[in-house]
Write a structure and sequence with these properties.
- Helix 1 (17-33) crosses helix 2 (46-57).
- The chain contains seven helices and nine strands; from the N terminus they run E-E-H-H-H-E-E-E-E-H-E-H-E-H-E-H.
- The protein has helices at residues 17-33, 46-57, 65-70, 119-128, 134-149, 163-166, 189-200, and strands at 2-5, 11-14, 73-75, 82-93, 99-109, 113-115, 131-132, 153-162, 177-184.
- The strands form three sheets. A five-stranded mixed beta sheet has the order 7-4-5-8-9.
- The radius of gyration is 20 Å and the shape is globular.
- By secondary structure, the chain is α+β, with helices and mostly antiparallel strands.
Length: 204
């Protein structure tokens, strides 16, 4: 699957027909084996719709997060913490193929270079739109920023709800999983506390 943006910022989704047909055939088999009538009106187009949806939900495999960051690096002598918080996260648990979703909070301390702010949510999407576990996702975002910018430190915190816990299994609807990963200056208590305080405050 390819997602393109036109000059007017309209997103265009392009699907490979062969891949879509192959996935749709498998969905037809799954639906039939679950006991549903695959020829029923409401189900007839479901395999194709599901095939396209799954490709969209995992289109991060076709993106290079490191190149996304490197495409917008700027020299700047700013040495204070930069925080982008409340970034929406939508991903797919690799264990049960059910969604998990929540917020990512990311900070870094520049070391001579900054990155265009829109690129940080973009790399979150690039990693999240894959088969994932939250722990790995947190580390991948941190490592990517560290490699691209070589900052004085990176901090990533993700808070998410997992449908595999809420819809099946233990069925705890209000549970939230928090993961964190830090490098450099954020491994120091003072800097880490400042970051946690910034992402915890709700500015009016």
């Amino acid at each position: 699957m390819i997602i393109k943006e036109t000059k007017s910022y309209e997103k265009v989704e392009l699907y490979d027909n062969e891949t879509t047909d192959f996935i749709a055939e498998n969905y037809t088999s799954i639906i039939r084996n679950l006991g549903e009538d695959v020829n029923r009106e409401g189900i007839l187009s479901t395999p194709v719709r599901a095939a396209k949806a799954m490709q969209y939900l995992t289109h991060g495999y076709g993106l290079d997060p490191l190149e996304i960051l490197k495409s917008a690096l700027f020299t700047e002598d700013h040495r204070q913490m930069i925080v982008v918080k409340d970034i929406e996260v939508y991903s797919m648990c690799e264990h049960h193929m059910l969604p998990f979703f929540g917020k990512a909070h990311i900070a870094y301390i520049p070391n001579g270079q900054i990155v265009g702010l829109s690129k940080i949510p973009r790399i979150v999407d690039a990693f999240a739109r894959r088969m994932q576990v939250q722990e790995r996702l947190t580390d991948q975002i941190k490592n990517c920023i560290q490699e691209a910018l070589n900052p004085l430190g990176v901090a990533v915190v993700i808070e998410a709800q997992h449908m595999c816990m809420q819809m099946r299994g233990i069925q705890k609807q209000n549970s939230v999983t928090t993961t964190s990963s830090f490098t450099g200056a954020f491994e120091e208590d003072k800097t880490r506390r400042e970051f946690i305080s910034l992402i915890s405050n709700k500015f009016s």
